[in-house]
Amino acid sequence: MGLVVQKYGGSSVADAAGIKRVAARIAETRRAGHDVVVVVSAMGDTTDELLDLAEQVSPLPPARELDMLLTSGERISMALLAMATANLGIQARSFTGSQAGVITDSAHGRARIIDVSPGRIRDALDAGDVAVVAGFQGVSVDTKDITTLGRGGSDTTAVALAAALGADVCEIYTDVDGVFTADPRIVPAARRLETVTYEEMLELAASGAKVLMLRCVEYARRYGVPVHVRSSFSPRPGTLVAGSMEDLPVEHAIITGVAHDRSEAKITVVGVPDKPGTAAELFEHVAAAGINIDMIVQNVSAAATGLTDVSFTLPKADGQAAMTALSQVQGSVGFGSLRFDDQVGKLSLIGAGMRSNPGVSARFFKALADSGINIEMISTSEIRISVVTRDSALDDAVRAVHTAFGLDASADEGRATVYGGTGR
Amino acid sequence: MGLVVQKYGGSSVADAAGIKRVAARIAETRRAGHDVVVVVSAMGDTTDELLDLAEQVSPLPPARELDMLLTSGERISMALLAMATANLGIQARSFTGSQAGVITDSAHGRARIIDVSPGRIRDALDAGDVAVVAGFQGVSVDTKDITTLGRGGSDTTAVALAAALGADVCEIYTDVDGVFTADPRIVPAARRLETVTYEEMLELAASGAKVLMLRCVEYARRYGVPVHVRSSFSPRPGTLVAGSMEDLPVEHAIITGVAHDRSEAKITVVGVPDKPGTAAELFEHVAAAGINIDMIVQNVSAAATGLTDVSFTLPKADGQAAMTALSQVQGSVGFGSLRFDDQVGKLSLIGAGMRSNPGVSARFFKALADSGINIEMISTSEIRISVVTRDSALDDAVRAVHTAFGLDASADEGRATVYGGTGR
Prior knowledge:
The longest helix of chain A is centred in the N-terminal third of the chain and has 24 residues, at 63-86. Chain A has helices at 16-31, 46-57, 63-86, 119-126, 153-165, 198-206, 214-223, 278-288, 319-327, 330-334, 360-370, 394-404; strands spanning 3-8, 35-40, 92-95, 102-104, 113-116, 130-134, 137-140, 146-148, 169-174, 195-196, 227-231, 239-241, 257-261, 264-273, 296-298, 307-315, 337-341, 344-350, 377-381, 384-390.
């Protein structure tokens, strides 16, 4: 008996059969005595079809109108889902993001949620109805125009509504069984995690794990919303994202999992004068182009020349823009040349316990060395070690590290338990 | 230099090419210096596709959710039309019915417009932008839920916005060239009318002319909105619906045109006791079933039996419900039997001038008699004569009457001019 927010993605409601299956799940939750708020994405390929229509009428559609167009996708899925739920004898009412009180800024296509005023949702719940809410969308506080939240927007809508309504749990239904110790397509022995802290999930999401978007985890952490990631195709429990690593028991597993990311490229600025302010000038220009940089490495300066090389990683899609921005300052900064490399991959080892276990990085680098994998860049946080390798070596690297930390399912059942003080 | 409201139907925006063609027309109107408000329907078959989806998930979808679903159709077309217009260098902003201030009652699927508060449309016009508004939809004043206006809803949206904004004209773009003296598919010699009064257009619409819905004409008449019905495929002027017949010159044509209607059926109640209150009881039961009756005829009672027959026409789609309602009162009313006949057609002759020209009905009935057409029911208004015939005789009847009143294009050019006092 509590308040449950459930989010279903586009693949779960791709057709009438999927919608009916989701409706049955909603009805079951309601019949169990819970108040239910459902957040739904657009059906399957709807968004792509709408984008295709837009392209046919305009090469560069205004962002306001593109948001108006795309939000019709959730309008269709939410109305159909409310109908299918009503058909099972459970009263359901659908609400647009605007009606649900999802207030955003005016950045069309990538709006941020500023506030949630779910008065109408509360009314529907008080009347005993299920509320079905359009994910991915809101209304601008300034212009009252319809906005979309961009990637991961529906998950964020669900977590934001759960926070505003004080829900007991936010269930994110997806096509996998939860969060795994590694991508099961690369590591067949990967295991589902029963629980993971917000901090660990943040690092996993930032390191390429696609099951939850970073912004959604950030929102959940800020408001302390327990997020249950689970499969819409099975009744089994998934992974609960909750709790801070500060509260973890001492015997908590050191290592949570291994994430990998093929979405980044590496740019190297060759022959940069090694004097104060040069790096700042370079990265100011890249930032001014609206590009987020991930890892940065600066080599030791060659004494003879006073020149150094600076490498950084960034989303592949931003590569062209970054190269253009850097070329424009080649004269003023005085560097030699630029190299672009999109054949790289990133591997990250994440675990809340690693901050108090000094042996982790040694074991990590030994595992990579034993497999003959060359490391091109390294970066670390308190609970993460990341390396950049050749793209072609990435899968082997993931498997090697997964095995080295005892994460393989054959070693044990349930969560990987590699405790500290075991001689590393 | 004025304010023009333009309405484009689903067939005008059926695909990307249609949307671009409409956008070009909008841009042309804006470049001519006019303020432009555009009302648009859903693209081509969108509504049918959405209804099909609804049917797949629920046999009897809740009306509120069906409205939510269907309104996504205009959301798509209006956003695409705004994009296509912007692509031609004309700033355009799309608005849902709710955003445009179309306030309705709560009758989902057939809501009535209660008020129009077009503050955001006015703002867009003041900024020099074209406003593109979703037709067919509004928001309930009581529940704040999204509603649809039912058949002819987009035309009504356009006229209501034109009235609220004080527009100079409301242009209804369609796939025909305007209002004709008869359906050109039946009468190839039918001519386009240049102007027609509200009263005549009301009678035409009520008599089966499909170019404008009755409710739209009623709205235009009440607020004095000039309505220009024209083709979206041609730059030629169409038909202007404006002015009252009270203001017509004496030499105005007597006859406006001939309308026909195949959408009705005839029910005959046989052997009804001919005493006060019996007809009232019959029609109360039909009305209680929510059925609108059109023509009613009661035969002279047979002196020997004290019984009479009562016939009436109604929409074919309501036939089953009416027969059921009447069957339930057979015992209490005491009639003999019921007959249902859907092989009937209705022909109507309409003209503001006929009220002061007594020869019209004589010529009308002679034309039908000369063509050997049997008349089953008759009803008249001040400016209309309607008869019910066999469905199979209807086309011949329409042609005979059209010719008899000199409406055929070969006789004269432009509007039919059959003046009074010419010996009829």
